[in-house]
Amino acid sequence: xxxxxxWGLKALLEIDGxxxxxxxxxxxxxxxxxxxxxEVHALLGExxxxxxxxxxxxxxxxxxDSGVMRFQGGTYxxxxxxxxxxxxxxxVFQHFSLFEALNVAENVALGMExxxxxxxxxxxxxxxxxxxxxxxxxxxxxxxxxxxxRQRVEIIRCLLQDPKLLIMDEPTSVLTPQEVDILFETLRxxxxxxxxxxxxxxxxEEIRALCDEATVLRLGxxxxxxDPKTDSARQMAEMMVGASLxxxxxxxxxxxxxxxxxxxxxxxxxxxxxxSLRDVxxxxxxxxxxxxxxxxxxxxxxxxxxxxxxxxxxxxxLKLSGQDVSALGPNARRALGLLAAPEERLGHAAAPDMSxxxxxxxxxxxxxxxxxxxxxxxxxxxxFADEVIGQFDVRTPGADHAAxxxxxxxxxxxxxxxxxxxxxxxxxxxQPTWGVDAAAAASIRxxxxxxxxxxxxxxxxxxxxxxxxxxxxxxxxxxxxxxxxPRPAAGLTVDEIGLMMGGAHDMGxxxxxx
Amino acid sequence: xxxxxxxxxxxxxxxxxxxVLAVVATxxxxxAMFAALGADxxxxxxxxxxxxxxSEQFASYSRPQLLVKAGPLILIAIGLSLGFxxxxxxxxxxxxxxxxxxxxAAVALAAYPLEAVWIFxxxxxxxxxxxxxxxxxxxxxxxxxxxxxxxxxxxLVYVAEQVLASASTSWLRNxxxxxxxxxxxxxxxxSAANNEIIAGTGMHWGVAAAFIAVIAAYVLLSRHILGFNxxxxxxxxxxxxxxxxSPNRLVLICFGASGALAGLAGLYEVAGPARQISIDFNVGYxxxxxxxxxxxRLHPVGILFAGLLMGLTYIGGELAxxxxxxxxxxxxxxQGMLLFFLLAGDVFTNFRVRFGGRVAA
Lengths: 514, 361
What we know:
- The complex is a heterodimer of chains A (about 525) and B (about 350).
- Chain A has 16 helices and 23 strands.
- Chain A is α/β, with parallel strands linked by helices and about 525 residues long.
- Chain B is mainly alpha-helical and about 350 residues long.
- Chain B has helices at about 10-35, 40-50, 50-55, 60-85, 95-110, 120-145, 150-170, 205-225, 225-235, 235-240, 245-270, 285-295, 300-325, 330-350; strands at about 1-5, 195-200, 205, 350-355.
- In chain B, the strands form 2 sheets. Chain B has a two-stranded antiparallel ribbon.
- In chain B, helix 8 runs antiparallel to helix 11.
- Chain B is globular.
């Protein structure tokens, strides 16, 4: 079954010594690899390793400074995505470019070079979706589709162009486990029919399950080619990071008394595109980590806002160590020990143009006593910022630099560290390691585990199931604003989780009208 | 092809020299405009920037005018800058200025002809309250009914002008004024007069208040949690809510502060340089202060200099109109250029210009 790409004659796409520099950073330094015909080729690397720049060059969005690309044996230098598509290269982006108010067929037509008449197109979509096992009704409005179904729209749009090479950028980040299985089936089928796939991901288990060959990038350079079928995930991870990984460790002991009690919490979303929370109940005890899974947009932001105090709830719905805090704002809750770290780093957890010292003050003012009768204690604030930078290994030239000058991972370490070092009684974090490289993610998880070991109660909201399985004591899922009954995390299988998550999605039911 | 790339951090060097560059660029472009109008550009620029301060012929009159003009501009602009930093847009300082003047003058006229030391402080208080109360109208409408504070505050300027007209023609009219519109002359009422603190300098109590406001705003913004919250709310509203800042409270505070300061400016003006409530009492300080606030980069010290510079172009502009016969519109264009170049300069603070290279469509 295995087809080797390598440097043989059968290479579909060859990248030879491609270099791309941006001011102050070499995004790709003399990168060479090739994708064979009928091959699923993985591009592995941490955030900032240069994967995106590389595929943007292949898709004609960015031009290399030097180096050569060859496609089907001929010189390949696309000046635009149009040229790339004409040559037979298609790409499914991580973030979808779909219009919610239009239906599936209209959205597909918008992304095509020469769309056929709508009736023909709808028939083609139904045909292709059935052929590849991607159930999709061409007449449905995109706004009503789940993330997985939206991705199918993008994939079908690509397939209608009959590509030789399909690029997929982190395609599973928005999918439930069952949806991932459907996607993989489709991709395998495509490979058998002669389409090569360049698959970008940092989820190693997926790459092992799907890919024939993997190229690992680190700091813009190729550090090696691995065989995902034989090399272990750990070996690949260490190659990606360039160091041996620390596995978060913990002793799962017994839990103390209930720290955070939520009962029958319902909050209407303030934004028309948000999700209202409906009858959410949960209890987290001292030393316990509750993992909250679920596909993005099912009430994660709203749950964090309700717990942090940005959104207030009806009296009696939220208790901290037995005290009703439903009517208290963020700072009053901080004073009592309930801290939070939101998902959106720039603009929510931190002010982009403010320095790290000012950002340390942003949430640390109350508990670290950085304010005396209204006046700010800058010296102490700076000391606190330096403490966070030091203890959480935040890479920055200094605390005076603006938050937006930091890389995502470093800012995330700062944001999480800022809350952890305030010694919370209860800490709520949303997506603690989103967009963070593997080494930093491991250290953030370890910090959360240590915090729980010290007697704090944690609520970790995340879309990364592996992460939740690694650190959670109990697990529940947010789906359309409802929280499932928390269950002990130990022993949960991926299928069970998928069923918990699947509440919102009618999995596998074909909408295609035949 | 020229491209702009966002800098990861604002360039501090550019932030510092942009105002200087803007003044130089304004002089060049303005000089070209004056030349096109048939005036000698060098003489015109000198008349605007140099003569008001150093000409032997005019300086003794125009030098004190500098503080007289700059004082209310700075006082109002400081108040506005707090709101602008927080993303709260009070465009109606002109109306608050008028209402402060009317409230303050009304106290004096009610007490007339009594002479007492409490009268002037009471007027100051009334002036601040008058401006504050007028500013509360858009603020409360915004917080209660989510109306647009820009429109409401702006339209209230025209309401205030009607109140001013009615005050100067009926209920505050000078009973001994032979029926002419306008109130009693407050400069001739010693307990109410806002006289020069140091004769011949133009330094009256309003200018002193402006300097105090500069210092207070500086301390507030750099050392106080309220100033921190104001900056935070303007830069990252969501982060501000996360930090526990109530947006509505901030609207009330910012409108209150800017309204009170504008009201004070009106009071000092009516009791000092303007001398009386009259139909044409307001001359647009409340609107020009918006330019001053931005020209000063919403920074208290910057506003101090911007107010002085703006005052200078006013006096110099008048001088140029009289001496060189330039149209008033040319002077206004010249002032507009200053703001234009300053805002254009901001691009270089936040962006880096790249030549060549290409990005695919």
